[in-house]
Amino acid sequence: HVQLVESGGGSVQARGSLRLSCAASVYLSCMAWFRQAPGKEREGVAVVYTGGTRTYYADSVKGRFTISQEKHEPTLYLQMNSLKTEDTAMYYCAASRIDDLGLCTWSKVERADFGYWGQGTQVTVS
Questions:
Q1: β 75-80/89-96 pair status
Q2: Alpha-carbon distance 100 to 6, whole Å?
């Protein structure tokens, strides 16, 4: 019954910015962003545990993207700056309910171990 709805995608020129949002029907403690480009496998982008006190990013987006989620708030954000053409992909929001921050890590992202997924929002950089 948990629903995740992404928004904010669109077309933007290289070096431009976009902010993606993910509205969740309930609060979940571990949330992440993934993306998938045509002909490529899904890859993790970033993950955050409540309050933004612990975050992890893919090497390809470090320094350019920022994931955020206020503690006990249901909305997840992904601020994307200095966009590159290679950032073009369908972006997906994912979430998991856990009770230990030690479980919300990059390892979890690598396993794509999230119980809930959104429908995706397209980002095109030209």
A1: unpaired
A2: 25
What average pLDDT does this structure show over 88-109?
Answer: 92
Mean pLDDT, range 23-49, rounded to an integer: 94
DSSP string, the chain: ---EEEE--EEE-TT--EEEEEEESS--SEEEEEEE-TTS--EEEEEEEGGGTEEEE-TTTTTTEEEE--TT--EEEEEE-S--GGG-EEEEEEEE--S-GGGSSHHHHHTT--SEE---EEEEE-
The residue length of the chain stands at: 126
% of the chain exceeding 70 in pLDDT: 98
| 46, 48, 54, 58 alpha-carbon torsion, rounded to 10° | -10
Largest pairwise CA distance in the chain: 41
24-48 mean pLDDT: 95
The answer to whether the beta carbons of residues 93 and 31 sit under 8 Å apart is yes
